[in-house]
Amino acid sequence: MVSAPAPLANAPEFSVSELSNALRRTVEDAYGHVRVRGEISGFRGAHSSGHCYFALKDASAKIEAVIWKGVHGRMRFKPQEGLEVIATGKLTTYPGSSKYQIVIEALEPAGVGALMALMEERKRKLAAEGLFDEARKQLLPWLPEVIGVVTSPTGAVIRDILHRLEDRFPRRVLVWPVRVQGEGAAEQVAAAIHGFNALPERGRIPRPDLLIVARGGGSLEDLWSFNEEIVVRAAAESMIPLISAVGHETDVTLIDFAADRRAPTPTAAAEMAVPVRAELTVEVNSLARRAFACWQRAQEHRRSELRSATRALPSAADLLAIPRQRLDAAATGLPRALKGNTHAHYRRFAQADARLTLRVLRAQVDHAAQRLQMTGDRLSLSARSLLQRRRDRYIGIETRLKASRFANAKAQRQLLARDRERAQRLTERAARALTTLVERRRARIEHSGQLLAALSYRSVLARGFALVRDQAGHPLHAAAAVAPGARLSLEFADGRVAATAEGTAPPVDAPKPQRRPKTEVKAEKAEAPKHADMQPDKQGSLF
User: Fold this and answer.
1) In three state form, how does the secondary structure of 477-541 look?
2) From the centroid of its chain, how far is CA 280?
3) Residues of the chain with CATH 3.40.50.261
4) Who contacts 83 (Cβ-Cβ below 8 Å, separation ≥6)?
5) Other residues' Cβ atoms within 10 Å of the Cβ of residue 488
C-alpha cells in the first residue's frame, strides 16, 4: 500500500545570511545599551589591528566581548586578564560564527576590591622595575627659590598651599593647572611633571627647585588617576625633587612611593617645602650673638697670650750683643787678611810668568805645526782612499749595468720572438677562421638563393603559369578587377606579352570565389585552353 506524500509546509524559506541579519536586528532592538558584570577571560592584549577581543564570564555563563581600537585608546581603565569589571555597551551578533557579543564602550572595575587588587598588582610590577627604590630618591632643597605646584587651579588645595607658604616663608610659586579626577587627568598630571622638568635653567620662565603634586581627599576611585602607570613613571623620572600630597593621611596612592617625599596633606607638603622665616630669624640672631661672644673671648685670649709672650722675650741689647762682638772681631782681622790675600795672588802670578818663556811658546807652536801636518797627511790619505773606493764602486756598477743591459736586450729579443710567433699563429688562425666564415657565408647565400628560387613566383611561371598585371604594373588577382578594354601585361617564364581585355566585366556584387588548393588551380589553368571555345563568355580571349 502506497502512503500519501506529506503536505508541503507554508513556512517561508530564509537564507543563512537573512536569518543571521534578522537575529542581529532582533537582539540589537531588544537589548540596546546594557551593563554587564563579569570576569575578563582570554584577554591577551590588543590585536595587531588595535582591537581587543576577550570574554566576560561568571560562574555559569560566558559572553564574547570586543573593544574597538578608538574606544580602547580613550579608556582610562584598561582591561586585564582575571579582573572583575562592569562593562557598558551594545549587544549584537557576529554572523561569521553565529555568536552574540557585546561591543564595549565603557569599562570600570567592579568594586573597591578589584581596584585594590589592580593597585597591588601594579605596585608589584613597578617595584620590580626599581621605581620605588630609596636610592632613586633625591634630597629636598633647604630653601627653594621657585616652587612648582601641579594641582587644580579652582580647588581649595592651591589656596591652602599658598596660605601656608605665606605664613612660613613666602616663595615664588608656579601653578600648572590640571584635572585631578576623571578621564584625561593622569595624562595631564604626567604632562605637567614633564613640562616643569623641560623648562630651561635660566629661561624666561624659571625652572622650579621643588615640585608639589597635590590633591584633596576622596575615594579610591576619585584618586585613581594618581595610581596610573604614566603618572608614577613621570614622578620617578623627574629630575626636580618631588613631594606627593595626594589625599588625606590615610589615603595611599602609587605616586607616594615614586615621589622623593610623601606629605600626609597638601598643607604638610607646604611645611616640608620651606622652613619658618620667624624661627630662622630668631635662630640667626642667636647664632650671631653666640658668634660675637666667641669672637670676643678669642680676642681676649689672644691678647693675654701676647702679653705673656712679650714678658718672656729678651731685650734688644741682649739680642744684639754677640753679633756686635763678632762684627768688631771681623773688623780687626780684615787688614791682615787683605795683605795675606794680596801676597798669595802675587806668588801665583809669578809662577805663571816663569812658565810663559819664549822657548816654551816656540815648542807649543812646533807641536801644533806637527799636529797640523799629521792631520793634513791623514786627510790626503783619507781622500785618496775614499776616491779609490768610489772609483771601484762605479766600475762595479758599470760592469753590472753592462751585464744587465745585455741581459735585458736578450730578454727583449726573446720576448719579441715569442710575440712574433704568437702573431704568426694568430694570423694563421685568423686566415683559417676567415676562410671558414667565408665558406659558411657562401653556403648560407647559396642556401638562401635556393630557398628564394623555390619560393619565387618565377618557379611557378616556369611550370606553365602566367602573371597578369595592370597598366600600372600591379598584379591582378580576380577577373572582377579587370575592366573591358583594359591594357594588361602577361608575364611568362620566358618574357612578357601585352594584351587587351575583352568581354563583359562580372557584376560587382558577385560572390567572391573561394580559394582553392594550388594543385586545383594549376589543373584548371592547364585545361583552360581546351575549354576556351566552349566557355568564351567566362574566359574571354585573354587565354
Assistant:
1) CCHHHCCCCCEEEEEECCEEEEEECCCCCCCCCCCCCCCCCHHHHHHHHHHCCCCCCCCHHHHHH
2) 55
3) 118-131+145-278
4) 39, 40, 109, 114, 117, 118
5) 16
Q: Which fold has domain 118-131+145-278?
A: Rossmann fold (3.40.50)
Q: Using one digit for the tens of pLDDT, what is the confidence trace for 522-539?
A: 434 434 444 334 444 444
3-state secondary structure 384-416: HHHHHHHHHHHHHHHHHHHHHHHHHHHHHHHHH
Q: Which of 118, 92, 121 is nearest to 105 (CA)?
A: 92
pTM value surpassing 0.90: no
Q: Diameter of the chain by CA atoms?
A: 188
The span from the first CA to the last CA of the chain, in angstroms, equals: 91
Pairing assessment for the beta strands 467-469 and 487-492 based on DSSP bridges: antiparallel
**DSSP bridge partners of 172:** 146
The three three-digit cell numbers of residue 516, written as one number: 582553392
Cα–Cα distance list, 103 to 42, 107, 340 (Å): 16, 11, 128
Give the HSE-up count for residue 369: Cα atoms under 13 Å, Cβ half-sphere: 6
Cα–Cα separations (whole angstroms), residue 247 to 118, 162, 327 = 19, 17, 93
Q: What is the pLDDT of residue 235?
A: 94
Q: For residue 320, what pLDDT band results from cuts at 50, 70 and 90?
A: confident
CATH of domain 16-110: 2.40.50.140
